[in-house]
Specification:
Length: 309
């Protein structure tokens, strides 16, 4: 598989977008008003988060990326759209004047996160229904579909989205959220981290028990494959036994600086690789490599084709 194949892949990303804002400053004293540090803000940054970061990661690998989501009719939504244009993501953003665009504000002092402030509301039913109609038209023009669920309400119709992608013969990858995975039934690939998996399937007592629990969950949800990302232990792919029941890929041995957005990088790389025609085993291996690179960077970062290939 070459970089040229990645550049031909067409990936549709749907899900909850957010704007990650960072305030960086110095901490030299404690407030006289309360026992909290005073941060003298020196600079600020805005980055794409959630499904927008997934789309950004896929575009950074050279793929043709369309992002379908809902934002507020506000300044944060406008900035998010501008950042997406800079990243060469074709954004189909539905504006809902009744909500605020989801924003996560992080205050950083002495290279440590001191505080995070979240702003979010759930999009309305009408705008979600309109998004579903547009999704059905878009899915046929893409090679792979990524559904990025951050639990903010943007994937209220995810069962219909999975069905439409399956009917069109497109692989549909889901980054799950919460303790009810039944809504993801019928997807091609589900990518929970180990904590999310344990919450749904229970904590395994051994590697064999983990395999049994993973395969039971995979069969119950009618998934072609289940990928459990396991942080410093790497990631493990579970599939039908006739294809090889289990593939474990160890984590890359390197210093971990920041795991923020690593899951976004994994599913974006998987989506691009599968969209480019790569077989599942190889797609998982290259996604694991991408994860090893991105955790060495600060914040919601991306992996470049030069780093990956």
């Amino acid at each position: 598989m070459s970089l040229a194949a990645f550049k031909k892949a067409r990936v549709l990303v749907v899900g909850d977008v957010m704007l990650d804002r960072y305030w960086f400053g110095d901490v030299a004293r404690i407030s006289p008003e309360a026992p909290v540090p005073v941060v003298h803000v020196k600079r600020s940054e805005a980055r794409l988060g959630g499904a927008a970061n997934v789309a950004r990661n896929a575009a950074a690998l050279g793929a043709h990326v369309t992002l379908l989501s809902v934002v507020g009719r506000d300044e944060a939504g406008a900035q998010l759209a501008a950042l997406l244009r800079q990243e060469k993501v074709r954004a189909q953003l539905h504006r809902d004047k009744s909500i605020d665009t989801t924003v996560k504000l992080r205050v950083i002092g002495r290279q440590q996160q001191l505080l995070r402030i979240d702003f979010e509301t759930t999009p309305g039913h009408e705008v979600l229904a309109a998004k579903l109609r547009e999704y059905r038209a878009l899915v046929r023009a893409h090679d792979a579909v990524i559904l990025s669920d951050y639990g903010k309400g943007g994937l209220a119709h995810i069962d219909a989205m999975i069905a439409a992608a399956s009917k069109a013969g497109k692989p549909v990858l889901v980054d799950p959220k919460g303790d009810d995975f039944s809504r993801y039934r019928g997807a091609t690939l589900l990518t929970p981290n180990l904590s999310e998996f344990n919450q749904v399937a229970g904590r395994a007592r051994s590697e064999a028990d983990l395999t049994n629990r993973a395969q039971k969950l995979r069969r119950s949800l009618r998934l072609a494959a289940l990928l459990v990302t396991r942080s410093e232990e790497g990631m493990t792919l579970y599939r039908d036994s006739r294809e090889g029941q289990r593939l474990h890929v160890p984590a890359q041995a390197r210093e971990v600086y920041d795991v923020t957005g690593a899951g976004d990088t994994v599913i974006a790389t998987l989506g691009v690789a599968l969209g480019a025609g790569m077989v599942m085993d190889d797609a998982v291996r290259i996604a694991n490599l991408a994860a090893g690179i991105v955790v060495g960077k600060f914040g919601t970062a991306v992996v470049t084709p030069q780093e990956l290939f």
